[in-house]
Amino acid sequence: MKKVGILGGGQLGRMLLQEAANFPVETWVMENDPECPAAHLCQHFVVGNIRSYDDVYRFGKNCDALTIEIESVNVEALEQLEKEGVTIIPKPAALRIIKNKIRQKEFYQQHQLPTAAFRTVENRSALQDCLDFLPAAMKLGEGGYDGKGVQILEKAEDISLGFDAPSVLEKKVTIDKEIAIIVAINAKGETALYPPVEMIFDPYLNLLDYQVAPADILQKILWRAEAIAITLAKAFQSPGLFAIELFVDRNGDVLINETAPRVHNSGHHTIEANTCSQYEMMWRLLLDLPLGNTAALLPASLVNLIGEKGHSGPVVYTGLEEVLKMDETFIHLYGKKETRPGRKMGHVTILGRDRLDLTRKAQQVKRLLKVESN
Q1: How far apart are the two ends of the chain, measured CA to CA in Å?
Q2: Using one digit for the tens of pLDDT, what is the confidence trace for 188-213?
Q3: How far is CA 294 from CA 184, 203, 237, in A?
Q4: How many angstroms separate the Cα of 105 from the Cα of each of 7, 109, 135?
Q5: Short-list 4, 7, 2, CA closest to 56
Q6: What span, in angstroms and rounded, lies between the C-alpha atoms of 201 and 101?
Q7: CA nearest 71: which of 104, 117, 112?
Q8: Longest Cα pair distance anywhere in the chain, in angstroms?
Q9: CA distances (Å), 227 to each of 195, 221, 231, in order?
C-alpha cells in the first residue's frame, strides 16, 4: 500500500480523498488549518505550511508519492524529495513554470503555442510605458487564485488599480467563448482528454459562475483546441492532470489562457458526468495504474456555490431542500464552516439531455440555493 501525500487541504484535497477510499492507498495531508475541508477524511493529517521548505521536506520524506491541490507550494523542497526518489506529480520542473504566470506565458511563446500578446512589468510604475498596450488584463506573477490577482486595465486612468509587483500584462481578447480541457498524461507519455467544458464567469468576482459540458463549439475548433491541449501537456514533460483554459475569439482562433497542473474546478462535474472522474484519474496517475475512460455519460452543467455579498461568518445554506428535490442534481458542500463574499463553498452538478434544460436548471439552482451567514 503506497503512502501518498497531498499538499493543501482545501476542497480539491477533500474530493481527492473521497475517491481515495476506492484505492489501496494510505493518505496523508498537510495544511496549516486543522479544520480545513480535507482534514477529517485522510488517514494522517499534519499541521504545516506548504510554503515552508522544512515542513514540505519533512512531510514528503514519509511518502512514496506527493501531489498538490494548489500551486503555491515550496518547489525547492519538492526538487530535493524528487532527487531522493519520491514520486512528485506534477514534476517540480513543470510546477515551477506553471506557478508563475510570467514563466507560463514565456513557456507558451517558447513552444510556439497560441496565446494572447503580452508584456511583463516589474511594478505599477512600469505600466506608464505600456499605455499603448491597453486595454489589457494584468495578472500577478505569483499568488493569484480564484479571480484574485487579476485586474482589467481599460485605459490610462486605471493604472492606479494595477499591482505593484512583477506581473504579466495580457492584451485583451475579444472572446466568443471560454473553454477548458483537462488532459491526463502518465509516466509513459500516454494521454487521455476530457471533453471540453464551456465556462461562464462572474464578471464582478472574476471566477467561475457556472459551466456546461460539453462545450458548444464547431468541430474544427474542437480539433484545434484538443491539439493545442495535448501539445502543451506533453511539453511540460511531466505526468499529471493539466487543466488548460482556452479562449475562443470572435474569429474562431483558439488561444491558451492559463494552465493548472492539478485537479480543477472545470472538472468537478466529472464525478457524476464521466466514466472516470478527474479525481479517480489522479489516483490512477499517482499509483501508476492504467488511464481511465474519460467519456461523458451525459451532458452536464455545474454551478459554483459562492458566498453571498454582505455575508461573513458561520455558514447557512438556504434553499438546500428545494434543490435536493430536483432530478439528476447533485450537491457537493466543501465542509467550510465560515463563509465570506466570493468564497467557494460548494458546487452543484446537474445532468441532462439538452443544453437548454441544463442552462434552465443551472439558473434555477442559482436562484434557489444561497450561501449566507447567521
Answers
A1: 44
A2: 999 999 999 999 877 666 666 789 99
A3: 9, 30, 21
A4: 25, 6, 18
A5: 7
A6: 20
A7: 104
A8: 59
A9: 13, 10, 6
Q: CA-CA distance, 130 to 124, in Å (whole number)?
A: 11
Kindly report the pTM of this predicted structure.
Answer: 0.94
d(CA 248, CA 106): 20
Please choose, from the candidates 191, 199, 154, 149, the residue with its C-alpha nearest in 3D space to the C-alpha of residue 172. 154
Interacting residues of 4 by C-beta distance below 8 A, sequence separation 6+: 20, 25, 26, 27, 28, 63, 64, 65, 66, 67, 286, 287
Q: What is the bridge-based pairing of β-strands 25-31 and 44-47? A: parallel
- Alpha-carbon span 310 to 305, nearest angstrom: 15
Residue 161's pLDDT is 92
Q: What is the mean pLDDT of residues 213-219?
A: 95
Q: What angle do CA 99, 100, 103 make, to 5 degrees?
A: 125
Work out the mean pLDDT of the chain and round it to a whole number: 94
